[in-house]
Amino acid sequence: MTPKSVAGTSVGARAHHAAPDEGLRGRARRSGTTTRRVVQPRAQAVSQEYAMNENGVLMPTGKYCVNHAETVRRKTRTVNVGNVKIGSEHPIVKQTMTTSDTRDVAKTVAEVIRCADAGAEMVRITVQGMQEAKACVEIKNTLVAKGYNTPLIADIHFAPKVALLVAECFDKIRVNPGNFADGRKKFENILYETDEEYEAELAEIEEVFTPLVLKCKERGVAMRIGTNHGSLSARTLSRFGDTPMGMVESAFEFARICRKHDYHNFVFSMKASNPLVMVQAYRLLSHEMYKIGWDYPLHLGVTEAGEGEDGRMKSSIGIGALLLDGLGDTIRVSLTEASELEIEPCTRLANLGMKACAENIGVKGGFEETVRDFKSFTRRTGDLPVQKADDAIDFRNILHRDGSVLTAVSTKELASEDPFYRSLGAKLAVGMPLRDIATSDSILLSEVPAASEEKALRSIRRLQEIGVGIVVPAAVLKTTPLANSIALVTVDEIGAPLPGGAARMAVTLDGTETAAQIKAVAASDAVMVLIKTASSESRLHSSRRLAEEMAKAGAKVPVIHHMFMAAGDKSDIVIQSGSQVGGLLVDGFGDGVLIQYTGSDAAVTTDFLRTTSFGLLQGSRMRNTKTEYVSCPSCGRTLFDLQEVTAQIQEKTGHLPGVAIAVMGCIVNGPGEMADADFGYVGGAPGKIDLYVGKEVVKKGIPSEEATEALIELIKENDRWVEKEVEEVSA
């Protein structure tokens, strides 16, 4: 499969190419045996290198998706899971996982039925031991007798013998490369100093894993090779570190064994609780498969996303970003909620991905991409506003260095005063608004209150006094001036005198601007750019093109993604903003967000849009305004009521911005699950909780009824605790 030169190929043709089944493994061996982080080369431009795959299809090797400028579904083989087909020739498959004790056959059967009735096309069940494996036979038979042929997936950790048994009755086996062969559950840190030590363990894994491969091949059972960022093996960590590259190689080690035995009925997954890590890992996986001609389908998911809107937002950022790149063939939205409730957001995301692929949304004609590097994360940062000597008010806080939130408001809202201030996230002291940690940085007005609207004008003055920016279209200001406002102009209006009262300028873009127009923006003194994508354009792709043009022009103006929605409900707003804007923020392009809604759903309030915007920034690892929770979705291994305990912990610790708490039903994936958290609350045994600081367990066997208070004390001991503020009663 030697790469063939294609017209227009770039400097990438000089890069090393592994043998078909070598990939990362070969390059790691050449790099030496000590732990290291390998600096990846910059992403190549549009022109790519191609190689012939095993089916005689010419496939690109220098990228991770078919087209960075357009949503085109990545071509894959078809994997058969019972009566369900996974792959690019089929609709995106929706799945979930039960939370019942697998040994309780009746309860598990009832839960699978609820999930299937809600729209789940596959259901995963945890199978941790022989008792559970035996119960699986009865679960499968009972479901079939009731007329349910929904494919069942066995979730396997540490138990190769159990996997062999359940492969006799289930349709698919999920194996975790980080712990499949580690029956001791020791989670040891081992330094592999020589290639011989590394290869010796690979040989042991092959010996343990091969019987399952042969069993699945014989019975037509599918498999998911599912890497988890929190549970990479000591061998992988020693060679690759805790990196997306390590995640990919961990999966490839198992895939090579499958391929050695001509078994190809499997899919890959690269899950992490951090959407940025998750997106980078899947992109790198797809990139590496392109290079060696593999075409296995992808199962997408953000693990331990949490519950409610936060969990849905994290999942939308990670899953949605990949779907809009044409990646993903089956998805699961992992929520700390009842399993059947996962299907609604899962369906919305699947529909988003299928629609984008069907319409091939994007920038027609394409564009050259030289700035964005999908293999490493770099955030573009704009220059914050500076104060001028003749300014009547302070403009330095109209944007925030870690990510800004703008809120569109009406004059009617302005006139309500106290309720309005609260909807912006401001504290109140004797009726006066004060900035809080999650107060909107600026507001957008579509009209200026008349001189007779005293309350509305007073609200504007009070906001300006605390540094909140007031953005108004220049056309409005020409007829109704507003002192110390920020005039929102079009590209064609740059250079014209600012309308009366305006002290600063912002520019609105629609994604269709030319290079010359972007140069004009770069040369202006605009304090921010609002990208309000034209209805005919794809936000993700047109904004990528703008990012390219802005980089070429040397533009340092902050970019605010102006998401305008004329219809939809709360879930639509979370899914769409997470996918479209989050898909840009995970690439480091964007300094803030403005979600504007003009639909009729009364549940979509200004407060909801503000908190959703802050949730989008936090989910994209930008601005932390509340406690971050990494909570698993529960399964049959869970040693306590996860939903109830998570709610209790959130109620008592939800006021700690910058603190991340992991709430885990068990430690099946290892202490690496705590990699993205400061503190961990983990089920250690029935009725007993272990507490972690980072990846280190510091307190073991705490009675569950005492564990929440013990967690609070642990946070205090580490100087991360603050008392809740009591808001003053407004006059």
User: What gross morphology would you assign?
Assistant: globular
The stretches of 5 or more residues where confidence is low (pLDDT under 50) are 1-22, 25-48
| Distance between the ends | 76 Å
CATH topology of the largest domain: TIM Barrel
**Total tally of structural domains:** 3
In the CATH scheme, the class of the largest domain would be: Alpha Beta
Q: Biggest sheet: strands side by side, in what order?
A: 10-9-8-7-6-5-12-11
Q: What percent of the residues sit in helical stretches (DSSP H or I)?
A: 25-40%
The CATH architecture term of the largest domain is Alpha-Beta Barrel
CATH superfamily of the largest domain: Dihydropteroate synthase-like
Quaternary organization? single chain
Query: What is the CA-atom radius of gyration, in angstroms?
Result: 27 Å
Pfam family, one: GcpE
GO molecular function, one term: 4 iron, 4 sulfur cluster binding
Keywords: 4Fe-4S, Iron, Iron-sulfur, Isoprene biosynthesis, Metal-binding, Oxidoreductase
Protein name: 4-hydroxy-3-methylbut-2-en-1-yl diphosphate synthase (ferredoxin), chloroplastic
Description of the molecule:
It is a single chain. With 731 residues, this protein is α/β, with parallel strands linked by helices. The chain is 35% helix and 18% strand. It has 21 helices and 27 strands. Strands 10-9-8-7-6-5-12-11 form an 8-stranded parallel sheet. Helix 2 crosses helix 3, helix 7 crosses helix 8 and helix 15 packs across helix 16. The longest helix is centred in the first third of the chain and has 25 residues. The chain is globular and about 80 Å long. The chain starts with 23 loop residues before the first helix and ends in a 14-residue tail after the last helix.
